[in-house]
Write a structure and sequence with these properties.
Layout lengths: L1 H7 L2 H16 L8 H13 L5 E3 L3 E7 L9 E7 L26 H17 L7 E7 L9 H6 L10 E12 L3 E2 L3 E4 L1 E10 L3 E2 L9 H12 L1 H4 L8 E10 L5 E2 L2 E10 L2 H21 L3 E10 L2 E3 L1 H15 L4 E2 L11 H4 L4 E9 L21 H15 L2
Parallel strand pairs: 3-4, 3-5, 5-16, 6-15
Antiparallel strand pairs: 1-2, 2-4, 6-16, 7-14, 8-12, 8-13, 9-11, 10-12
Helix pairs in contact: 2-4, 4-11, 6-8, 9-11
């Protein structure tokens, strides 16, 4: 692994990546509010002699052309997400967030730092690739609807037309240096719903004079679990979760209504649609059976991330050059969502997971946790992966 990194000359750029990451981590910004992040990225890119432009409000894109090889007509899109989470940091890092209630708790600062370093490598090594590389620093991955779909609508895949897209997520569930590569579904469709159950308020001592939406909501929460346990093939992955519930104002009052929010996740749009139909049926009829009414607002979220078989087969030997065949692993499918899926709906490509967990250093916190961070020694490897993909596809 070390010899390959030296051959690809990425260690010097990794030092830069650490500097970029520390700045970004100290100054995190939430989805579609990444104004200073956008400014910082554009300043760095201009410093390399490039001409970046904004996209999707707070994102950045830039194009770099190679000068050698036989890749004329090929256009490779490399993507990093740039937004942070609304979370109060508890890492104790010397470069911890200075923006109250916001932190990079998912590794997006590392993704952005890596792609900035890759941009510098591209400028310094135009003679090592042909064709065109588009870099996308995408805003708002952490919310739905997020930044990928607007990037597609604003033409990130055209002028020139992208022929392959590649992305990577630093991934604490995997041991340091392993690369998770999987053909087919990797991450789930992530839909969202809001549900209001309306009854008739009354004194708690006279329940017979009202219609209790809290009882109805409780039955609905229980009943929708049968979508997974009784209406879904046991060999198929599906999640239905109610995440919030609010109702009532006092211990002795049956309220008028209860409000809930939740998520439904599946590995195919077809499975998600079937489950959503079941959700609507169960919610409506359960509420009706208990003398209440239910209003369901269902929002289809990110589609599932599905890597093409041919794309994965193409990438495997390239990635093996960097981390070795033994470190290419088949990752568990995650029911988390990722809007990288929108790019894969239009062009061939793949999304991979780069292992960053280091138990010896105590770097094991899960993503979206206030203590999350990752091993920065991953930067030489992560940059080398991008460089290998560039050279493998555009030479």
């Amino acid at each position: 692994m070390e010899n390959q990194r030296r051959m690809l000359a990425t260690d010097t750029y990794a030092v830069e990546a650490v500097e970029y990451r520390h700045h970004l981590h100290t100054h995190p910004e939430p989805s579609f509010e990444e104004h200073e992040t956008q400014r910082y990225i554009m300043e760095r890119l201009r410093g390399f002699g490039l001409e970046p432009r904004p996209i999707a409000e707070t994102g950045v894109t830039v194009t770099v052309s190679g000068t050698s090889g036989t890749a004329a007509g090929k256009v490779l899109l490399l993507r990093a997400d740039i937004d942070a989470l609304r979370l109060t940091e508890e890492t104790g890092l010397p470069f911890a967030s200075q923006n109250a209630g916001v932190m990079h708790a998912c590794g997006h600062d590392g993704h952005t730092a890596t792609l900035l370093a890759v941009a510098h490598w591209l400028v310094d090594h135009r003679d090592q690739f042909g064709g065109t590389v588009k870099l996308l620093f995408q805003p708002a991955e952490e919310v739905s609807p997020g930044g990928a779909e607007p990037c597609v609508k604003e033409g990130i895949l055209q002028n020139p037309d992208v022929t392959f897209v590649f992305g990577m997520h630093l991934w604490n569930p995997l041991p340091f240096g392993q690369v998770g590569l999987r053909a087919g579904p990797l991450l789930a469709e992530a839909d969202r719903f809001e549900l209001t159950v309306t009854g008739k308020g009354t004194h708690a001592a006279q329940p017979h004079l009202g219609a209790d939406p809290i009882v109805a909501a409780s039955h609905i929460i229980t009943a929708i679990q049968t979508i997974v346990s009784r209406e879904t093939n046991p060999l198929e992955s599906l999640v239905v979760t109610v995440g919030t519930i609010q109702g009532g104002s006092a211990f002795n009052i049956i309220p008028e209504s209860v409000h809930m929010t939740g998520t439904l996740r599946a590995l195919s749009p077809e499975a998600a649609e079937r489950a959503a139909d079941s959700l609507r049926r169960i919610v409506t009829l359960t509420a009706q059976a208990l003398g209440t009414t239910a209003e369901l607002d269902y929002e289809v979220g990110y589609p599932p991330v599905i890597n093409g078989v041919e794309s994965v087969a193409f990438l495997r030997p390239i990635l093996e050059q960097v981390v070795g065949a033994d470190n290419i692993v088949l990752p568990e499918i995650s029911m988390g969502g990722e809007d990288f899926a929108y790019y894969l709906q239009h062009v061939p490509g793949a999304f991979v997971l780069m292992g960053t967990r280091n138990e010896a250093k105590g770097l094991t916190a899960p993503h979206h946790n206030p203590t999350f961070t990752f091993d920065e020694d991953i930067f030489p490897i992560a940059i080398a992966v991008f460089v290998a993909v560039i050279r493998g596809y555009l030479s």
